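assembly run, all chains below
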Amino acid sequence: MENLEKILKEHPFLEGMSADHLKILVGCASNVVFKAGEMIIREGQPAEQFFFIRHGRVQIETHVPQKGPLLIHTRGEGEVFGWSWMVPPYRWRFDARASELVRMIAMDGKCLRDKCEKDHNLGYEIMKRFSLIIAERLEATRLQLMDIYGNPKDK
Amino acid sequence: MHDTADAMIFRPSLIRRVIKESHDTFSLEIEPATPDRLFHFAPGQFNMLYVYGVGEVPISISGDPTQPKVLIHTTREVGTVTRAMRGLKVGSTIGVRGPYGASWPVDKITGNDVVLVTGGIGLAPLRPVIYYLLANREKYGNIVLLYGARTPEDILFRKDLEKWRSRFDFEAYLTVDRATGSWKGNVGVVTQLIKRSPFDPLHCAALVCGPEIMMRFTVLELEKRGVRHENIYLSMERNMKCGIGLCGHCQLGGSFVCKDGPVYRYDEIIDVLMKREL
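ok done. output:
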């Protein structure tokens, strides 16, 4: 637990979080490891966690029938992924797979959701941080959609 | 300062090699028609290349500034001239005039970390500065390349990238906008690599080259890291024709990209960069 507390305290995502709130978060945290190629989450399954990546790279993808996985983006060391646990109906919208050995801290989103309902200050702190991530992902997706490196003659 | 008449005269030069970089991008290795004429240039400058009987286009130099016997240009087939250029064979003649424009500030930024952010074919104008920085490695702090390509198949200069990535004194991070399952690298836009890159924002110079939209978002991410505007340099692209600031085709506010650019310090063009009319 002490180790988890240290890791979470130093994570940029949680910078500025009060000691009390950090303690609550530590209570919802656990270490997880995934081997290369292993599925971490699956589209449609209950979304009950989010993750702090400590080592390795995670592929966010969707399955295209008769074609296989379509890679949407990757997340790496120091990043956070998974926010379907905050959004009803709390089911994963995409798949995530370890593209290499991945070590992460998994946060129990269901437990945290309940705690945020009871402590709105904690809820606000979490929401502030996730809204930044959501805005970043939206901006990145827009840039990807613009296809800015495409050849002008093909447009 | 160019003598106007001289600056407009093409030097007939010979194609030594045509290198396919990707499905639509190629490099030309050019040598002077007479061996006594060398191609001296500063990293970031461009030449006007003339395909005889077809037309001329401005193309940035992508070769090594310490190797003036051979000139390398990398471009993409986008129009009539570049299509004709791609069809040139070894031994064909091509007209070269230049070099033109402001270069990357390699002397001014010594002692600093250097972060190079580029996307798509923007790696071509940055390659000479990478060669220069590595040839003068002791003068700089961390050197970090952040490169975004459209797909894995569009990644340019693979051999160079492999060589650079194998060095202990150079950090290179690649990402692609889209990929299939067989790609094991990063997927996502290049701006997202900035957040965790190993450079000191207070003592760094950022050299940025790519589509203008990408450069605008890159600047926002560099700002978030705390990089000051005066330490950010952008390579701009406009419709350059004469190369010497006479014709006015490439006017950007009060400057001419061919003469005052293409490399600008960000704080010097911040006002015109966001003007939609320019």
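The interface with chain B takes residues 57, 59, 61, 68-74, 76-79, 99-100, 136, 139-140, 143-144, 146-153 of chain A (CB under 8 Å).

Chain A is about 35% helix and 30% strand.

not gonna interpret more than that til we talk
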